[in-house]
Amino acid sequence: MKDSRIGFGLLGTGLIAPFHARALNAAAEAELAAAADMNAERLAKFTAEYGCKGYATLEEMLADPEVGVVSVLTPNHLHYEAVMRALEAGKHVLVEKPPAMSLKEVDEMAAKARQKGLKVEVVLQCRTRKAIQAMRQAIEQGRFGRILHADTYMKWFRATDYYRMDAWRMSRRWGAGVTIQQLFHYIDLLQYLAGPPKRVQARMTNLAHPEIEVEDTTLAFVEFENGAQGVVQASTALWPGTDIRIEINGENGTAIMVGERIETWKFRDERPEDEEIRQIGRAAVGTGAGGAADLDFQDHQRVIEDLVAAIKEDRQPMITLESARLTLEWALAMYKSAKQEAPVELPLGAEEDVW
Ligand SMILES: NC(=O)c1ccc[n+]([C@@H]2O[C@H](COP(=O)([O-])OP(=O)(O)OC[C@H]3O[C@@H](n4cnc5c(N)ncnc54)[C@H](O)[C@@H]3O)[C@@H](O)[C@H]2O)c1
Description:
The chain is an alpha/beta fold and 355 residues long. The protein has helices spanning 17-26, 40-50, 58-62, 79-88, 103-116, 130-140, 160-164, 178-181, 184-194, 274-277, 298-313, 321-340; strands at 6-11, 30-36, 53-55, 69-72, 92-96, 120-123, 147-155, 197-205, 217-224, 229-235, 245-250, 253-258, 261-267, 344-345. Helix 1 packs across helix 11 (298-313) and helix 4 (79-88) runs parallel beside helix 5.
């Protein structure tokens, strides 16, 4: 391993692991040191392809001094235990979304990281997109004025085979369902841009996957703390799947991202940089609309590079557990609302969970 690089150990060598491996290979100060998976066949294939050490268990990987960061890429309901064990062993952590299944679990993870003086970053990689950063900057500069609407439309498609690949994808108990699994990224973007919601009303249905128990469609109406309103629409039932849309409308401007492209960028105070912003994302990059592997790894690379810089500079990472907690809280409020068939006020109690 090259000296100044931080070694990453991947826990889980399933669908998302190759994106982490490619991102690590491309990242400036990071290196893929090892991987661990209880599925020996998957592990062997992965280590052969990416040329890293392989371990049968997390415990064995934690004993490897070349592993400075553990990337938790296991099914959603297993994140909490792995994160806590990695922190206890003195490793920094990169954890895939959603960080955990309950607010209490997130609070415990954050407390453990503080106690140990370690960094935890959550892979909510869409925040790093240029289009989202441009929108966030325009909001911080006050260019929208009062935000009136913040909406997301995720009209995606996942074949039943996607759900059948692994048992956890079909089980709410194990953290599956379009709300917590796919939509999570886009409500995260809305709260990153427009702030936290104060009230949500959601309806969840299964439109096209009768073989699975989880919802494949969520519709919600949102009122944000800052007074804005929003529509949340998400589905994996809509063949062939079209690019995600994020729309922000303020008194003085409108910005719309489609996929990772700026589709609309219009402000009453047109500025010289606006023309360049309108070109963001013109190169076609996969953003997950038609299949789970229809992705690029650059967003993951930016998150990895941020975590490495946060460790080296001893600063907070860009995507903290505390900020991802707001997104989990929103997702949990939608589940609660759909179950009760009534609006739900936020904040929720720390005992709230996906179960
Ligand atoms: N950021 C994104 O855009 C994105 C995209 C896809 C998936 N994800 C997230 O990545 C995570 C993994 O998803 P996936 O689709 O790769 O899942 P997967 O089921 O394909 O892979 C998970 C792997 O973890 C292994 N595993 C499970 N328990 C283990 C244990 N105790 N010890 C060692 N290995 C264990 C399994 O054998 C499997 O190989 C999930 O949290 C998911 O939400 C994120």
